[in-house]
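Structure in, sequence out. Go:
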């Protein structure tokens, strides 16, 4: 059951990345604010909190990035979550995650 949820979450994340990434490729994102490292349209999210809620991708992104326990997340509308994940979605909100652009801490 855990593997199925993990697989579903990863597939949904990949699908969203591919689908929405190509749809927004023409528009350049706003430059990230220096204090958060995230675009203005994103939320700054704490990786350890997200992992506790069942998200997997933020941990992977941060481990491969600056490892500061923060990622950027663009929340998707509830109808998108319902369409992609259904009524038994293992996470409360679907996000488009990205690593923040802050330099790695020494």
């Amino acid at each position: 059951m855990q593997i199925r949820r993990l697989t579903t979450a990863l597939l949904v994340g990949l699908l969203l990345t591919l689908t929405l990434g190509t749809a927004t490729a023409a528009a350049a994102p706003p430059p990230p604010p220096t204090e958060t490292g995230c675009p203005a349209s994103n939320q700054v999210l704490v990786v350890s909190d997200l992992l506790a809620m069942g998200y997997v991708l933020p941990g992977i992104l941060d481990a491969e990035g600056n490892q500061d326990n923060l990622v950027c997340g663009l929340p998707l509308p509830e109808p998108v979550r319902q369409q992609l994940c259904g009524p038994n979605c293992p996470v409360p909100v679907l996000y488009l995650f990205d690593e923040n652009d802050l330099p790695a801490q020494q």
